Amino acid sequence: MWNKIPIRAYLPVIIFQCKISILKLKPFLNSKKHTGMGYLRQPLYSCSFPDVFSTNLLKFMKTKIFLPLTSLLLAALLFNACQKEAETETVEIQQVTDENKYYTPNLTDFVTDRSGYWTEIPAGSVDALSQAIAEADAGGVIYLKAGMHTETDRVTVNKRIKLIGAEGAILRIQSNDTTSTSNPAIHVVNAPGTAIQNIVIEPYNDGAHTAVLFEKSPQSALLSSKISGFPMAVLIEKSDYFALINNQLIGTKENHGVLVNNGKSVYVGGNDISNFLRGLWACDEWGTAENNTFHGNNNGALLCKYNTIFGFTIPGNPDPISADMTCKAWKLRNNIFVDNLNIGLAIFDGATLNFVANTNQFSEHGIYDIWISGDTDTGVLFLPASSKNTIHTNSTTIIKDCGIDNVINGGTLIDTTLDPC
To answer: CA-CA distance, 394 to 409, in Å (whole number)?
Structure first.
């Protein structure tokens, strides 16, 4: 049934009483599926008069005194009540639908010409990239010619550059610095607007853990590249408006394909991500994940807060990193989640106001296609229930919802009396 929450105000104006009902939008639920939202319309007020007064007196008082007075009182009350309702609902809708918060990169922003500083590195180079970066001006372009390039230690990018590979350019790289558990092969730090494009990145040996760390480098990008053989492909830390587009990321089943730890309005689009513990771990707010394929991972994607309990450190900071907030108001659309070992999409640890469009595809997962967690005590860490997320999907999607006030349209819901939360 449709539900409503009445707000009744009783106005004792001498001889009559008016009952007022203010309507409020509430989600419609039934025992198997959440099937939509809507409004129930009711009369705003109805008045009844006692029988002890004469008809003429009542008519006079009703038309000349009380109805005008009541109209004024009703108008004031309705205006105030509706204002409060409107303010509350506007905030919630704004949190989900403010398109200005989302980032859709314009690929022409990454088109490069030869008008600036341009350095070419021929095939067969050894440790030439770090030197080229040191000599480059901010805004310069470094171009790797087709063939093999080797770096025997970490490459640090500390200024805005574009690192572009010709078709067939391969960068084999390692890091000998084991003071951080992330141990990135390429560390882009304090370099806003940096782009890495069209390069095959492989580990030189087993030393490096993370292929590329973008730290404090907003509006940077990794484009049309292939990363394989690293436990973690991409780590995003304090880098808003980051773009990860058209890459192939292949892991070692040891860590995450992409960890968005701290980064607002991040865009993850058109990537093929496989063979990780989690293809995408998304924190922070206003992110977009679209047109990606998550397959062959333990879990396709996880919307959740990253915590210091994992003990993951980055260069220059001995303290383990942690997300400033859980995953909030991400949009997922046109993604394919297929053949991940456990779960296609997991929404955990208080993740809220995320939107999963009906253009996503889910199939062939070992446990559930989508799992929204409730309050969870791991014995080491308490994870609050995820809430107010919206899922649109088809009837074949298997969903376990243990959260609070999530709206689910479509899918086949797991009966949590048989499979408890």
So the answer is: 8
